[in-house]
Amino acid sequence: MKWSEATWQESQAIYSAIINLPFIQEMTAGTLEVTKFQFYLKQDALYLTYFGSVLAAIAAKLADPKHALAYLGYAEQAIVVERVLHESFFKQYAIADYGEMQPSCHHYCHYLRAVVGFESVEVAAAATLPCFWIYGEVGRYIKDRVQQPNNPYQAWVDTYAAADFNTSVTEAIAICDALAENASEATREQMTKAFLRAAYFEYDFWLAAQTQVSWTPL
Ligand SMILES: Cc1ncc(CN)c(N)n1
């Protein structure tokens, strides 16, 4: 079995917890409160900047130039393409600024930075894979279930259910499998741990938006 298949199986409890979050269910129904989506968007715009720089740092460390080019493309996609979408949502939802990075986003971004700074490139690539794979799956999950013709979140859903996003997902999975194939058993285990940790952070990111978890003023 490929590393990605075994790891995806291990992540199923986290994936179903994500799908069952009220945030995802209400987005699917089109009933998600706007304030929760606004909180999510602001945090996500901040996240994407960090995510883009982590992807560029991975590209710099990858030995195979084809893999490096792919990660440079994902970095561009995160910073340019996704942020353009966010900025159009910012207008639609009357968001003036990004605001402060709140605990869940902070934890996730700094975890990714620590992994890319201090772990092997294989582990760093595995840590960024849930950002692709889970979003692709969630996008498809919601798209298949949207019933309301004018779901206010349709543009968001369309981004992550889109064919080009899914091409990146498939390609990133294949690169991680190629890295895993040439890695030691110990590195493969670290890759799996990193994937599962980042998958948990994906869960926590939506949970935090749902409950709008912010720094406690002291
Ligand atoms: C938190 C998060 N994770 C992943 C993605 C998809 N790149 C995103 N926009 N935001």
Automatic annotation (TrEMBL):
It comes from Rhinopithecimicrobium faecis. Pathway: Cofactor biosynthesis; thiamine diphosphate biosynthesis. Belongs to the TenA family. Keywords: Hydrolase, Thiamine biosynthesis. Residues 8-210 form the Thiaminase-2/PQQC domain. One of its GO terms (biological process) is thiamine biosynthetic process. GO terms for molecular function: thiaminase activity. This is Aminopyrimidine aminohydrolase. Pfam families: TENA_THI-4 (PF03070). The gene is tenA. One of its GO terms (cellular component) is cytosol.
